[in-house]
Write the structure tokens for this entry.
Amino acid sequence: MAASDAEKTEKPTPKRIQRAREEGNVPKTQDLNSAIILLTSTILLYFMIGGLMRNLIEFFHIFWREIPFFEFTVDNMQKYFAAGCLKIAAMLAPFLLAILAAGILANIIQFGLLFTTKTLQPRLDRLNPLNGFSRLFSARGVVDLLKNILKLALVGFVAYWTIKADFYKFIPLLDQSLEQIVTFLGLLTYKVALRTSIMILLLAILDFIWIKYKYIKDLKMTKQEVKEEHRQSEGPPEVKSQIRRVQFKTAMNRMMREVPAAEVVITNPTHLAVALKYDGAKMDAPIVVAKGARKIAEKIKQIAEEHNIPIVENKTLAQSLFKSVEIGQMIPPQFFAAIAEILAFVYRLKGKHAASAA
């Protein structure tokens, strides 16, 4: 029994996962970030390269045209350099912002929104070269090395296959213009980049699935840890006991306040008591407003006597209502006939009392 309890066989609780997140321990692979950024930049460049090149050519045309009129002083050179950098930054801003958004999205996809400074805190064990060598030659290091070799082989194969498919187009380039050669090489480069990016993305997704599985496995808990966490979340036993007592007392007081509004109290006769309320204009059937056994039953009968509420002894009906109907619920149809007889008796009784009082 002790051995089974010591095994981490239970899924991590939400509290344990949240605690790990707060410490910066989240399932993440840098390969997925790189793949999404590479794929995004490849697609963006395909659609934006024409505009970027035109803007850059126009910028340098203006630069070379105006350079004879520059006054080369220290202050002016700083102004010219700053203006040129701002101009180029404005051209590249949409592209760079899209890449930044892709990097943020890659992190959100993996572990959601998270901000923590614990991963930035210095750790001396990271500076120990022995720990670095142990990680490098550990089983995990060997697995990472094999994964990287496999990734490199697959990406290289995709690039080779793409170039080989268009290899027959290289020889006709000898008779084509420089613009045609540049266009062909640009399109070929785009195809290679796009296909290798997709391959890297697929491999990164598989890697992330494995890391997520390993992450959950590492966070698994023993049965004792789950019990201990559950106990801590609920608080000390004496506090829980006090809360239960207060809740029970509050519910009991609320129930007893409903007894004076009852039409009748059905008893066992001594062990059980069930108070019923009925308003033909508002209710489809009588409802149970209070019920209890032993001392609670005595208290219900005491309140009923103080408010002149009829008490009817019916052992079978009292037991059935006590077991099958909760407080606030309507009585089931199988009890309609028995309850109707009792209510009729109660109303006749109340009619006689009213007549005698008159």
Summary: The longest strand covers residues 287-293. The radius of gyration is 40 Å. The chain has two domains: 2-113+129-228, 255-357. The longest helix spans residues 178-218.
